[in-house]
Amino acid sequence: MNQQIKNMQVIERNTKFIAVTGGVCSSIGKGVLVSSIGVLLKNAGYSISVVKWDPYLNVDPGTMSPLEHGEVFVTADGAETDLDLGHYERLMQLQLTRKSSVSSGQIFEEVLQGEREGKYLGRCIQLVPHVVDAIKNRLLDFAIEQQSDFVLIEIGGTVGDMEGDVFLEALRQVRLDLGHHRLLHFHLSYVPYLSWAHEIKTKPTQHSVYALKGLGVIPDSLVLRAEKHVDKKPCEKLSVMCGIDKDLIFQVLTYKPIYRLFLDLERQGLCEKIQKYFGIDPARSTDLTAWSQLIDCIDASKTEVTIALVAKYVGSNDPYISVIEAIRAAGYWNKVNVHLVVIEAEQLEREKDNPDAASWKELAEVDGIVVPGGFDKRGIEGKILAAKWAREHNVPYLGLCLGMQVMLIEFARSVLGMADANSTEFNKDTNYPVISLLAEQRTVERKGATMRLGTYPCKILPGTKAYNAYGKELVHERHRHRYEFNNLFRQEFEKAGILFSGIYPEKDLVEIAELDNHSFMLGTQAHPEFNSAPLNVHPLFQAFMKAVLERLSTK
Predict the structure, then answer these.
(1) What CA–CA distances, in Å, run from 382 to 311, 358, 375, 415, 480?
(2) Strands (E), 220-335
């Protein structure tokens, strides 16, 4: 199907596009803004789909360090994607696929493969038109397949980054192809407040818009990211200098919790003005009752609990953003405020012989412990020590992926007497490989997108903590790993008090393990955090938080 026919299909179906770009600097919240727009439109009764355009040359972020790029979010169909897709799923309550994540690497790979196959009939392959056409075709195919009222597009990076120019050109051409009022372009820009001058400064935003205009891209709306409310005068100045209707200038401040932003944007008339721009008459109202109830629940929370996140990737919360959001949401609905303490696993290991060390003092004071996933051996011994502390002191423990593995390694060492028990990921020569490489992984040579990825079924054993949490015998969870519990050791663990309460039936793989006669010590090979949302908290996080509160009530 050629591009012109696709254009006509999109127009006939009345699909509307909303694009978000970012200016001045990174990390100002494009993903949160896209999610907020989606929440307002979805709660006004519109169907929503969303796609992220990422300018990096990696095919996906799966091989990137979490400290550099943040969390790798895994979709149900097994795509390793940018963490912003996690924002979209949690807040808009969608289930996305790999088609919602498009990188320059994917586009260039597609074009170069086409060239090798003779698709371009000997022509010189160029950024324009060939690469840009590939981006546009991906978007049109996505819109035709989704058949939603609105397609939201986030363009990663910051305006001015040369690697993003090809996506901005694609945006410019999409508008020309489909017509002006088929696409609404929001430009999110940082507006600094200079405390020494007591002034909001609009010049960086002006320059950011000028950079866009230099590429032939003119935004329809400005969204001002600011720490302080931006008064009328700076907004009027931006309207004049940037050529943007002042009625389409919005502002987003820093809110805790972030869900208050939805209410504020609704007060600013964002959803109504979007509908007006697209000629929707009469405009639908937005029902944010569920979000208001959540905010009321948070405001009513008085009790505070301290949860330790025993982390390998320390320096930013982004590597664990889905885990953190799931923990906090579980706290909200149990009417407690979560004080999250990030404890560096390597620090626990370094200070293991000093109970008065800061890291161990912190661990001794927490009400619950969560050990998230990760790769490679750095920090592993510290995570094992955290699992040992939780087991010996009856502290509620939730292990996620690697967190389940270290829980079982610790149990093997301390309870079963397997002194050098380990995973073959960390020690290939261990005498007790209680965690070992999946059989199908042994011949894998490429790193990218070759793990056990995506959603798999899990059969839950009745009468267990896992079953009490889920309330059903069959669940589906997302995975991202290469190593599994070694079934050769299953009987020894079971005799000593480990319940393997979740099994992947097709291959008889352990999915969930829990310790009998403990307040709550449960690990899952899956990543349940990817299926948790503020309005629909994952059952395992709920059960963990309830165990924390039950233990507190008996102190």
Answers:
(1) 9, 14, 14, 18, 22
(2) 221-225, 249-252, 303-311
| Mean of per-residue pLDDT scores for the chain | 92
pTM, two decimal places: 0.92
User: pLDDT of 329-356, one tens digit each?
Assistant: 999 999 999 999 999 999 999 998 888 8
Query: Which strands form 483-485's sheet, in the order they lie side by side?
Result: 422-423, 433-437, 483-485
Q: What are 114-164's pLDDT values in tens digits?
A: 988 888 887 899 999 999 999 999 999 999 999 999 999 999 999 988 889
Of 515, 539, 527, the residue nearest 455 (C-alpha)? 527
- What residues are annotated to the active site? 401, 527, 529
State the DSSP code for 129: I
The Cα–Cα gap between 191 and 453 comes to 40
- What are the tokens at 107? 């586009």
3-state SS assignment for residue 338: strand
The string of pLDDT tens digits covering residues 204-223 is 999 999 999 999 999 999 99
Q: Where are the beta strands (DSSP E) in 376-530?
A: 397-400, 422-423, 433-437, 452-460, 474-481, 483-485, 498-504, 509-515, 521-524
CA neighbours closer than 13 Å in the CB half-sphere of residue 245: 9
